[in-house]
Write a structure and sequence with these properties.
Layout (H helix, E strand, L loop, with lengths): L1 H9 L1 H35 L5 E5 L5 H12 L4 E7 L1 H12 L16 E6 L5 H9 L4 E5 L3 H42 L1 H9 L4 H41 L8 H34 L2
Antiparallel strand pairs: 1-3, 1-4, 2-3
Helix pairs in contact: 1-2, 2-6, 2-8, 2-9, 6-9, 8-9
């Protein structure tokens, strides 16, 4: 620890730049995490709105309807299956359009029986619809359609673009940490030589730099956590107040994973960069 304070006193700029690079990377990651948890919240709230409806052919018996319900309910991607009988479908139609029996003077009920299928995940809807369409007893299969596909398309686009941006940011930060550690090792070359003369091994010297890198990572990550939490609190309070009917995530819902990721990622970034830099430089100076 005394080596850390001595190095910090001699050249604090190395330590500050290292902390700022970690803070920069973690802040961008935190923004991505906010968007990810918000998307997950929206998917969970809208999942019931995109229930798949499979309409049977007119001549299908009630025994077939029940057997198909039992079969589909056992699929791994399906959470719940509900039978909608012809009479219930008829009553739903009248209620939806505000009609009465007299407004629909037909001798035979034109509405077929159907299954309402709720998947475990919203992403499963398109594939589930394709599988059910292959079953001959069904006449038509409908679900959220373009709304579901647009939501899923945006979700996948967000994940892909966010992952690419994060990867670029992490590579950039790793290069910064490697460069800073390299400058630090060269700047303290005389001190390292003295430690070797006193009997210190490369591993012992490397551990002193790793400790310094770990402190940098933790300070940078915790700073990003504090700043991001305050900013997210203000932003989410504003959104909840301005748009109270929308499905906004709460900071309390994802603060724990945010805390864990900030601590883990900042430590890993800093340690990896320090290990890469010190392994070759200390070997060259041996």
């Amino acid at each position: 620890m005394r080596f850390f304070f001595r190095r910090f006193a001699r050249r604090p700029s190395f330590f500050i730049i290292g902390c700022l690079s970690i803070f920069f990377a973690q802040s961008i990651l935190n923004v991505f995490l906010l968007g990810y948890f918000e998307m997950e919240k929206m998917k969970e709230m809208w999942r019931s709105s995109f229930t798949l409806r499979a309409f049977f052919k007119p001549d299908v018996s009630s025994q077939v309807v029940e057997s198909m319900r039992d079969k589909i309910e056992n699929w791994s991607s399906v959470q719940e299956v509900t039978i909608v009988e012809q009479e219930e479908a008829h009553q739903r139609f009248l209620l939806y359009f505000g009609l009465s029996e007299e407004d629909l003077p037909v001798e035979e009920n034109p509405f077929p029986a159907s299954l309402e299928i709720l998947p475990h995940r919203l992403e499963d809807l398109p594939a589930l619809a394709r599988e059910i369409k292959k079953i001959e007893v069904f006449d038509e299969v409908v679900y959220g359609g373009k709304n579901t596909e647009n939501l899923l398309r945006f979700y996948h686009f967000f994940i892909r673009v966010g992952s690419i941006i994060l990867l670029g940011v992490f590579i950039f930060v790793l290069l910064v940490i490697v460069s800073i550690t390299g400058f630090r090792v060269r700047f303290h070359a005389e001190e390292i030589q003295v430690l070797r003369l006193m009997g210190a091994t490369n591993r012992q010297i490397r551990f002193s730099f790793l400790g310094e890198g770990l402190i940098e990572g933790l300070l940078g990550g915790m700073s990003a956590l504090v700043v991001s939490s305050l900013a997210f609190r203000v932003l989410l309070d504003f959104l909840h107040t301005s748009f109270p009917t929308f499905f906004w995530v709460k900071l309390e819902d994802f603060f724990l994973p945010l805390f864990i990721i900030n601590v883990m990622m900042s430590s890993i970034l800093s340690l990896v960069g320090t290990v890469v830099a010190t392994r070759s430089l200390l070997r060259d100076k041996a």
